[in-house]
């Protein structure tokens, strides 16, 4: 049909419609004049007919003018949103189905907060190969844990659990639902299991999660294969794990009637893929998961999607001495990030570029080469050890922890890359069961990182991609927020001591995060950017502002209490009554490292702080610490406890928190006239009621 004929049809349709409308209009104009019934005539077209004609006419016009436009425009006006996760494969959440499909009989579950438990789970899964069986690591958050009741469906199956304890005896974030599920009754008679817990003896609830799961699984009918292992991160958790593993596998062999099929070989979990010609927009440059997430920001912000915050303030708090403590303020205006006093902020650091360059020089690596590490197991949940494709520079700067002393499995798997027989013999010896003590002395206690090891063993030249596979991930560092949103709604403050010291072998050890943050000095209106997100904490002031509080935090343990004091000051300025607010803090020397001195003395002066008790440990011949001041104020402390006071402790777990706890027990026993057992129950009651909270680290 040509253009002329189309136009003729269109003209005819319009003429017809025009007549119909005029007829209808004539009727409308004369309808008030009554006519004899015989004289009434039907209109040429009714309103329904007119509507249909208009619709047909509109469609005809649309088809005529727009029929060729779609064909001539291959691009869509709006591009579809493309999300690039770390693993793009859709998976069946049923780990039982996966075990049946892939003929695997061992599921290794991990509850991990910093990555260590996940690393141990991966090593146990690889151990299975030595015994002619197949295993795989499983994140309990990504599967249906009630399928543990179906483990009996898989022949000769068993489950291993590597579970870290977090905070005050709590499960890790990814094991919380599993913990809740275990509170209910289930039939686990078809399950065989073993547990390795990861904890720290300086904390009161040492390995609470591992102990609970080990006991609870047995109560639900499961069969324990061997005694639970209890790893202590305050001592040597690597040695604890290796020792437990040496008891696990003989027990498994005995139970299932299997035996080792030979020495454990070096079997890589990932294969290397290089990219010669790749679109730069497809390369990860440090993003935790989503490609371009650090430059194309979209809330909400969390561990997988941090916010690029501008550093507005970075100032020194110490007045002298050879140490440094930084006060840093992160801008969160317009980010929709909300926080409360007592929360933590996570900071994603970057490794030292000079260290990366040295590794590249020793291993003769082009840091700008682009590569991908692909999991050899097509069914694996984790397709890559970190976001890929990326460059070696990005991997070593952002994704791999090159500053932490490597574990035995790392050195064991790179033995064959040493060309000198003496180096190979040495690595073989210290990574064997008999060499645990020597490994601890040479690697762990001396804090030898991978760069120093490569220097000390010059014939050792592992491929950089294999190192990237073996080394643990570089994780975020957490800091107690030292501000209140009531006083600083658009900024998050942190208080951080610069980690910089010398190891036993004389090497200078620099903390990854604090030394990186020290370089983030604002030099303009925008300031340097840092990836952050807020992690909620149960460390909270009482709801009632009149409830008394006792805060104990020397050094940077003062950080969350600065936020608490700001909260009370804000309430006071609003005219609200506030209860007794007592602070016990301290430092080495008043003239050098008394942080926030002017602020604290100002709060004491205006009545926000009822008491400011500072211990300056090295300003006199005999050292004085916060626990000594608490002991001196025992009557005040006891009276406040009787008035319903909440007690908060923040800082060093190994010494300070333990000593403070002992002093509190003594005060309750002496001032309350209680026996040692009664005092213990009293303190336990405070904890159970949420009146005694600790935010400590080792």
TrEMBL record:
The free-text cofactor remark is: Binds 1 FMN per monomer. Binds 1 FAD per monomer.
Q: Which SUPFAM superfamilies match?
A: Ferredoxin reductase-like, C-terminal NADP-linked domain, Flavoproteins, Riboflavin synthase domain-like
An example GO CC term for this entry is:
cytosol
Which residue windows are transmembrane per the record?
44-65
Which reactions does this protein catalyse?
Answer: 2 oxidized [cytochrome P450] + NADPH = 2 reduced [cytochrome P450] + NADP(+) + H(+)
Locate the residues binding FMN. 112-117, 164-167, 198-207, 233
Domain FAD-binding FR-type per the UniProt entry, residue ranges: 304-542
**Gene3D superfamilies linked to this entry:** 3.40.50.360, NADPH-cytochrome p450 Reductase, Chain A, domain 3, Nucleotide-binding domain of ferredoxin-NADP reductase (FNR) module, Translation factors
Stated membrane topology is: Single-pass membrane protein
Q: Which residues form the Flavodoxin-like domain?
A: 106-249
Keyword field contains Transmembrane: yes
Question: What EC identifiers does the entry list?
Answer: 1.6.2.4
GO BP annotations of the record are: response to hormone
Q: Where does FAD bind?
A: 477-480, 495-497, 501, 511-514, 697
The record, for InterPro entries, names:
CysJ-like_FAD-binding (IPR003097), FAD-bd_FR_type (IPR017927), Flavdoxin-like (IPR001094), Flavodoxin/NO_synth (IPR008254), Flavoprot_Pyr_Nucl_cyt_Rdtase (IPR001709), Flavoprotein-like_sf (IPR029039), FNR_nucleotide-bd (IPR039261), NADPH_Cyt_P450_Rdtase_alpha (IPR023173)
- Which superkingdom is the protein from? Eukaryota
Q: PANTHER family of this UniProt entry?
A: NADPH--CYTOCHROME P450 REDUCTASE (PTHR19384:SF17), NITRIC OXIDE SYNTHASE-RELATED (PTHR19384)
**Role summary:** This enzyme is required for electron transfer from NADP to cytochrome P450 in microsomes. It can also provide electron transfer to heme oxygenase and cytochrome B5.
Q: Which family does it belong to?
A: Belongs to the NADPH--cytochrome P450 reductase family.
**Protein name stated in the entry:** NADPH--cytochrome P450 reductase
Origin species, per record, is Branchiostoma lanceolatum
Question: Gene behind this chain?
Answer: POR
């Amino acid at each position: 049909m040509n253009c002329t004929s189309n136009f003729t049809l269109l003209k005819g349709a319009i003429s017809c419609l025009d007549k119909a409308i005029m007829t209808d209009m004539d009727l409308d104009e004369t309808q008030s004049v009554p006519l004899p019934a015989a004289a009434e005539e039907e209109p040429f077209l009714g309103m329904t007919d007119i509507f249909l004609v208009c619709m047909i006419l509109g469609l005809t016009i649309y088809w005529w003018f727009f029929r060729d436009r779609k064909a001539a425009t291959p691009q869509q006006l709006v591009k579809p949103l493309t999300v690039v996760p770390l693993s793009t494969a859709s998976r069946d959440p049923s780990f039982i189905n996966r075990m049946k499909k892939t003929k695997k009989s061992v599921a290794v579950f991990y509850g991990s907060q910093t990555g260590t438990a996940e690393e141990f789970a991966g090593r146990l899964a690889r151990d299975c190969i030595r015994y002619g069986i197949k295993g795989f690591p499983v994140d309990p958050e990504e599967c249906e844990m009630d399928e543990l009741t179906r483990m009996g469906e898989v022949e000769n199956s068993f489950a291993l659990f590597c579970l870290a304890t977090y905070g005050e005896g709590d499960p890790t974030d990814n094991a919380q639902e599993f913990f809740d599920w275990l509170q209910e009754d289930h039939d686990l008679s078809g399950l065989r299991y073993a547990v390795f817990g990861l904890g720290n003896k300086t904390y009161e609830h040492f390995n609470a999660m591992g102990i609970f799961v080990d006991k609870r699984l047995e109560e639900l009918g499961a069969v324990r294969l061997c005694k639970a292992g209890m790893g202590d991160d305050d001592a040597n958790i690597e040695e604890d794990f290796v020792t437990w593993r040496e008891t696990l596998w003989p027990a498994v062999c005995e139970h299932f009637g299997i035996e080792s099929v030979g020495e454990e070989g070096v079997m890589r979990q990932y294969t290397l893929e290089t990219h010669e010609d790749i679109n730069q927009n497809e390369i990860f440059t440090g993003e935790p998961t989503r490609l371009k997430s650090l430059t194309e920001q979209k809330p909400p912000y969390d561990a997988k999607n941090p916010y690029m915050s501008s550093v507005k303030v970075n100032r020194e708090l110490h007045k002298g001495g050879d140490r440094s403590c930084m006060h840093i303020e992160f801008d969160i205006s317009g980010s929709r990030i909300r926080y409360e006093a007592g929360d933590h902020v996570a900071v994603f650091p970057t490794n030292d570029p000079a260290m990366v360059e040295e590794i590249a020089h020793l291993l003769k690596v082009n840091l700008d080469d682009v590569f991908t590490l692909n999991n050899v197991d097509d069914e694996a949940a984790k397709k890559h050890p970190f976001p890929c494709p990326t460059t070696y520079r990005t991997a070593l700067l952002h994704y791999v922890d090159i500053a932490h002393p490597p574990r035995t499995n790392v050195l064991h798997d790179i033995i064959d890359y040493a060309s000198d027989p003496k180096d190979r013999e040495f690595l073989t010896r210290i990574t064997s069961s008999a060499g645990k003590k020597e490994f601890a002395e040479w690697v762990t206690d001396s804090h030898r990182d991978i760069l120093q090891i490569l220097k000390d063993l010059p014939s050792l030249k592992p491929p950089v991609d294999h190192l990237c596979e073996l080394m643990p991930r570089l994780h975020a560092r957490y800091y107690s927020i030292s501000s209140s949103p009531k006083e600083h709604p658009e900024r998050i403050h942190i208080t951080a001591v610069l980690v910089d010291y010398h190891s036993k072998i004389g090497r200078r050890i620099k903390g990854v995060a604090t030394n990186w943050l020290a370089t983030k000095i604002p030099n303009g209106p925008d300031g340097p950017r840092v990836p952050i997100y807020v992690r909620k904490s149960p460390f909270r002031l009482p709801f009632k502002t009149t409830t008394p509080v006792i805060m104990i935090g020397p050094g940077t343990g003062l950080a969350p209490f600065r936020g608490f004091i700001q909260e009370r000051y804000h309430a006071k300025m609003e005219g609200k009554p506030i209860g007794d607010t007592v602070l016990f803090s301290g430092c080495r020397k008043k003239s050098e490292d008394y942080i926030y001195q002017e602020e604290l003395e100002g709060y004491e002066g205006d009545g926000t702080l009822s008491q400011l008790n500072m211990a300056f440990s090295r300003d006199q011949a005999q050292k004085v610490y916060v626990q000594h001041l608490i002991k001196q104020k025992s009557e005040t402390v006891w009276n406040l406890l009787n008035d319903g006071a909440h007690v908060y402790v923040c800082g060093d777990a190994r010494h300070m928190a333990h000593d403070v706890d002992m002093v509190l027990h003594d005060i309750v026993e002496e001032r309350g006239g209680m026996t040692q057992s009664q005092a213990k129950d009293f303190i336990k009651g405070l904890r159970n009621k949420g009146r005694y909270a600790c935010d400590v680290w080792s």
